[in-house]
UniProtKB/TrEMBL annotation:
It comes from the Bacteria. Keywords: Signal. Residues 527-595 form the ASPIC/UnbV domain. It comes from Cellulophaga baltica. This is FG-GAP repeat-containing protein. InterPro entries: Crtac1, FG-GAP, Integrin_alpha_N, UnbV_ASPIC.
Length: 1172
């Protein structure tokens, strides 16, 4: 018997153990267990359907609050075609329907749920936003005032907020810091698509989809009274509002508003002017937004005490959904939208990372959704930032789903074959159209849970956390329903009972939490708008704000639940109360709920505004340095629709040198086609501008000042590039040499160069034949109208001021690839300058120089890293006597992820034999290699594919093998890119390099211009960088998250990123070249931008930084440091990206003992020591 008992006990133990290990982070509470039987049922009728009410699938919201003050959070659901419902929390995830008893039944199309104690009596009230297709009288918003006994009285008219303007959501906040709560009302009228598709915006308040602002004008008849002040307050811009976020975005003590708008309408950022008015500053703060912005949330996602945003769109994750939703890449429409003053918008979620503001009067944001991995969650509605696992990092939960997949292009092409309605009637023109609509599949997917990894990346933990139940989810909210210290979730769904998730974090991990319930002055008793900062022993600071309206149509808990990880004690909590009062609580226990009453805590003085001591200052205007690059209009996509980016927008470059012999640095900046290049000559610390005559015919790329003809002054070499002209015959791509008369006057020497037939990029110079003059390498960027045929690159030997093509001395160099940058550098320390190349769809390439002949190095680790390389810069970062490199790449803030296992590929050939190249560019989506181009783009290029793949679904279900199987691939070229990180290349000798990705901030955008300098004067080399690329295909969208980069080196090859608030190095444009320039002995940097203003930055404090000019014939210097290390610095004539800098040795007087200068043979030329 005891044996049977033993086996029984073992069996029970096994079951218990199995149950424990099967517990997920979240547990779905079924409707029969929770008692929540509400269903937001949407039924299509002959008289009510998508074609006459296209917003009928937008769903409802949810609000959570403790309506009966029993310590448990209750739930309110809004209903569209059904009544809204209130469920009272009875504990242990049991809820009771109290709707009818409470008097909360509705018969309107209710959208948003706003929970607020509107009359400040200590009981939470309900404000409902009403929309729909009904007449105005039936569309009035509802205010249900809590009577304190679980009954409610509807009083919207008495309060003055019974608005009937197709409301989406309301947020209550103190807009004027007068101590009471005002109301912003989001609006989305039931307008026809013809109105919505217009490419202009009404900004005078007359648009039916213009939001409203209601001011709390005081107490009347015992309760607050509201008045519509929209026009007076400047709330006059129409939109199609779906999301609303309230936060103090610029930290001036006044609450601002971020409004997300559907369709083409721009998102709006209403910044509070502190006088009762608001100004839209979205374009100043954000470079791009979501195209069809849905819900929005705001929080500090990386614990830097700065508020970030996420907005949602409808980009699918799967290739099937991507390709059936998108037909073409309409660049012309995109440009038209921009010309009509709309912002750049792209169909994907946008994660706006707050970078700080430097010396600006507002913060700048980088859109990093693609880098973070949260940009494609299909037809999405509600984002919620919250720490769902209590590890101290805010995760993000995203709801999605749509009842009918009306974006399916097979359906769209069918329904667009004739007008939807019979003219003059409300009847559908096709009897079976409604039937086909009803037969359309739903976008029925699991919602997304992204776990914050703490490094600006998120992991999709939907399955691992037990949340992979498919639904049609809309509004969502979080609250701690069981008071166990972690955040649970609830969401309103269409045609199904709501999803209710119990969070099991406290059961599964050892993370701690803190809960804070704030109580402030009457008028804003719940402290809406308050800010919290938790300070912990590990120097972590967590920022949280009390703003309950979040996500989409919903209100989350007022109680702040803050995860703190494994920390067992909180050093202090700082509270910024609404209105600006600061208080502090010290030494708090974890796993505790604190009720904090204003005025009962240690007061803190308001932080005084202090002038910041930035590393650099922007001084362009002070120098009279006036230059703006003006781009010509060009569109390669008309002839080459499969490109990932245009090839005519890669300038301008910079050349630096003393062109008039006065001992100061002057600058040349190239012009775009139809714009002349410009000389900016320095005199007494100011600059004068003079144009280069007869240069407007060309698209200037790289440029160099050097003594071409050995007459003692600096001449000018300019590379002609671009792609807007499709032929070579008229000389648009001929490079040019301009000779200097010694006074800074330049004349074109038409005989100096051979005929060059290439669209070039860079030019770099060295005396590779060691005859005493400088020779050049010129990189070929692109073959116009024939991408990706390898353009010509040239090795040009200088013979008395006349150049000869000697490219044969470097076998394979002529057609090495699409070169973007080059550098002459002695990578192997043999005193011969070797040639390093960076380019697109290729690895970094080294040509070893042996006595003026070149051989491509094949046994280098660099061959493993094929990328989209833009730039290369050399320096001895670890002071070991050889040159290491910084290589700029595409970055990782891109949809086009690449790895060795799953690279980007390009299959290129004239497949249809029509004398034009057909590049089929592919990526991996969910482990399958597929074309990037949608059906319309690839089928338009190769029309035989329409026959093989007659529908969007057949196209979407095909892999690249299926496409290639129907094409003649004989002679097809295959390109590959498996690495897109901008990187540090540590020189290990013998052609081997350790490739290390630069810090995450260097991956936000393509890295172009790079300069190396000890900017913080600690004796270690640092990196300044700029880069973006705006002119891309329009599905994934442009690269604009680069804002200027400063990486501080540790002297060992490691780097850390400095914030804009420390550096003030802000280059928020389509940045390209970056050069070091001496301006009155002050170290400065010039940064150019495509179609933008050129900026000049100067080091704020250069006390210890000194320089010595390289002399003619000196190839490198050895810098001896006091701690025994020796740093090598090469003398570059052109480096980075299209950049030439002052030829100087930079050194720190506190760190250096002497400097030795060496010539091209490795012989010591001179020595400089500190006592000289």
């Amino acid at each position: 018997m005891w044996i049977k008992k033993l086996f029984l006990l073992i069996g029970i133990g096994t079951v218990l153990y199995s149950c424990t290990t099967d517990v997920k982070q979240f547990e779905l509470i079924e409707a029969e267990d929770s008692g929540i039987q509400f269903v937001n049922k949407i039924q299509e009728l002959d008289t009510l359907h998508y074609f006459n009410f296209p917003y009928m699938y937008n769903g409802g919201g949810v609000g959570v609050a403790d309506f009966n003050n029993d310590g448990l959070e209750d739930i309110f659901f809004s209903g569209n075609m059904v009544s809204s419902k209130l469920y009272i929390n009875k504990g242990s995830f049991k809820f009771e329907d109290h709707t009818q008893k409470a008097g909360l039944e509705t018969n309107s199309w209710v959208m948003g749920v706003s929970i607020i104690d509107i009359n400040q009596d200590g009981w939470q009230d309900v404000y409902l936003s009403v929309a729909g297709h009904a007449e105005g009288a039936k569309r009035k918003n509802k205010l249900f005032v809590n009577n304190g006994d679980l009954t409610f009285t509807e009083m919207a008219a008495e309060y003055g907020i019974d608005d009937n303007g197709h409301s989406t959501q309301a947020a209550f906040f103190d807009m004027d810091n007068d101590g009471d709560l005002d109301m912003y009302l989001l609006t989305h009228a039931n307008e026809p698509t013809t109105n919505i598709d217009k490419i202009y915006t009404l900004i005078d308040g007359t648009g039916p989809s213009t939001d409203r602002l209601y001011e709390n004008i005081g107490i009347e008849n015992g309760h607050p009274k509201y008045q519509n002040i929209s026009t007076k307050a400047g709330i006059t811009i129409e939109g199609y509002g779906l999301g609303l976020s309230v936060t103090d975005i610029n930290q001036d003590g006044w609450l601002d508003l971020y409004i997300t708008n559907d369709f083409i309408a721009d998102d709006i950022l209403y910044v509070n002017n502190q006088d009762g008015t608001f100004t839209n500053k979205a374009k100043e703060y954000f470079k791009q937004t979501s195209r069809n912005s849905m819900g929005v949330d705001a929080a500090d996602i990386n614990n830097d005490d700065l508020i970030d945003f996420i907005t949602l769109d409808m980009l699918p994750e799967s290739n099937l959904r991507k390709k059936t939703m998108t037909s073409n890449m309409n660049h012309e429409h995109y440009k038209d939208v921009l010309k009509n003053d709309f912002s750049p918008q792209f169909i994907r979620n946008a994660l706006q990372l707050n970078r700080g503001q430097g010396a600006n009067n507002h913060p700048v944001f980088s859109e990093v959704g693609r880098l973070a991995g949260v940009y494609e969650t299909d037809w999405s509605w509600s984002p919620l930032f919250a720490d769902f696992d209590n590890d101290g990092q805010k995760d993000v939960y995203i709801t999605n789903g749509f009842m009918r997949d009306i974006t399916d292009h097979d359906f769209q092409e069918y329904s667009s074959q004739s007008t939807v309605f019979v003219k003059g009637t409300g009847k559908l023109s096709k009897e079976d159209l409604l039937k086909k609509l009803k037969n359309l599949k739903s976008v029925y997917l699991p919602n997304y849970m992204f776990q914050n990894n703490g490094n600006l990346s998120f992991t999709n933990s939907t399955v691992d956390w037990g949340m992979n139940q498919a639904s049609l989810s809309n509004g969502s909210a979080y609250a701690d329903f069981d008071n166990d210290g972690d955040l649970d979730l609830v969401m309103n769904t269409i045609n199904a009972t709501p999803l209710v998730y119990k969070n099991n974090s406290r059961q599964l991990n050892k993370n701690h939490y803190m809960q804070l319930q704030l109580k402030a002055d009457k008028g804003n008793i719940d402290a809406v708008g308050a800010q919290l900062n938790l300070y912990m022993p590990n120097d972590t600071k967590i920022h949280q704000e009390i703003t309950p309206v979040r996500g989409y149509l919903s209100t989350s808990s007022l109680k702040a639940t803050i995860g703190v990880g494994t920390i067992s004690k909180i050093d202090s909590v700082h509270i910024k109360w609404p209105g600006g009062t600061f208080e502090k609580l010290g030494s708090l226990r974890v796993d505790t709920l604190y009720t904090i009453v204003k005025g009962k805590n240690e007061p803190l003085n308001f932080p005084a505004l202090q002038s910041k001591n930035f590393l650099v200052s922007e001084i362009s205007d002070a120098l009279n340095f006036e230059h703006t690059h003006i781009e010509n209009e060009a569109n390669d996509f008309r002839h080459e629709p499969l490109l990932l980016h245009l090839n005519d927008y890669f300038g301008p470059g910079i050349a630096v040198g003393d062109i008039n012999g006065d001992g100061t640095d002057d600058v040349y900046i190239g012009g775009a086609r139809n714009q002349k290049g410009a000389f900016l000559t320095q005199k007494e610390g100011k600059f004068n501008t003079q144009e280069l005559s007869d240069s407007e015919k060309y698209e200037d790329l790289g440029a160099l000042f050097f003594d071409v003809d050995q007459d003692g002054d600096l001449d000018l070499y300019v590379v002609s590039g671009g792609s807007s002209v499709k032929y070579y015959d008229k000389g648009h791509y001929q490079d040019r040499i301009y000779t200097n008369d010694g006074q800074g006057n330049f004349v074109l020497d038409k005989e100096a160069l051979p005929i060059l037939k290439a669209s070039g990029s860079c030019v770099v110079a060295s005396d590779f034949d060691q005859d005493g003059d400088l020779d050049v390498f010129v990189g070929g960027a692109v073959e116009p109208d024939s991408f990706p045929i390898s353009p010509r690159s040239y090795l040009l030997e200088n013979n008395g001021g006349k150049f000869t093509d000697v490219s044969h001395k470097a076998p394979g160099l002529q057609n090495i690839g699409m070169v973007r940058a080059a550098l002459w550098s002695d990578y192997d320390n043999d005193n011969d300058l070797d040639l390093l190349l960076a380019g697109e769809w290729m690895p970094l390439v080294i040509y070893k120089n042996t006595a003026g002949s070149f051989e491509k190095v094949t046994n280098t680790t660099l061959n493993k890293y094929s990328g989209m390389w833009n730039s290369i810069t050399g320096a001895d970062f670890d002071s070991d006597g050889d040159i290491d490199y910084i290589a700029g790449n595409l970055g990782t803030n891109t949809a086009y992820k690449a790895s060795k296992e799953q690279p980007l590929r390009m299959y290129a050939k004239d497949f249809d034999q029509n004398n034009s190249m057909d590049p089929i560019i592919t990526r991996y989506i969910q482990d399958v290699e597929v074309p990037i181009a949608p059906r319309g783009a690839l089928g338009g290029q190769l029309r035989q594919l329409y026959k093989t793949f007659p529908s969007y679904s057949t196209y979407a279900n095909a892999s690249v093998k299926d496409f290639l199987a129907v094409l003649d691939t004989t002679g097809m070229a295959v390109f590959e890119a498996n690495y897109t990180n901008s990187s540090y290349l540590e020189n290990l000798g013998d052609g081997n390099f350790k490739v290390t990705s630069l810090p995450i901030e260097a991956q936000f955008a393509p890295l172009f211009g790079v300069q190396v300098f000890d900017i913080n004067q600690d004796g270690n080399l640092d990196v300044l960088g700029v880069g973006n690329y705006y002119e891309t295909e329009v599905i994934s969208g442009r690269y604009d998250a680069g804002k200027g980069m400063v990486l501080l080196g540790n002297g060992k090859g490691g780097f850390s990123s400095e914030t804009l608030n420390t550096t003030n190095f802000v280059v928020d444009s389509d940045a390209k070249a970056l050069s070091l320039v001496k301006i009155e002995d002050r170290m400065s940097w010039v940064a150019t931008s495509s179609a933008g203003k050129t900026l000049v930055f100067a080091l704020t404090d250069s006390l210890n930084n000194q320089y010595i000019d390289f002399k003619r014939g000196e190839q490198y210097a050895l810098i001896y440091k006091k701690k025994g290390k020796i740093e090598k610095q090469e003398n570059y004539v052109g480096s980075g990206y299209l950049s030439q800098s002052s030829q100087i040795v930079l050194w720190n007087v506190a760190m250096v003992t002497k400097i030795e200068f060496y010539n091209e043979n490795g012989s010591l030329e001179r020595t400089y020591s500190q006592n000289e």
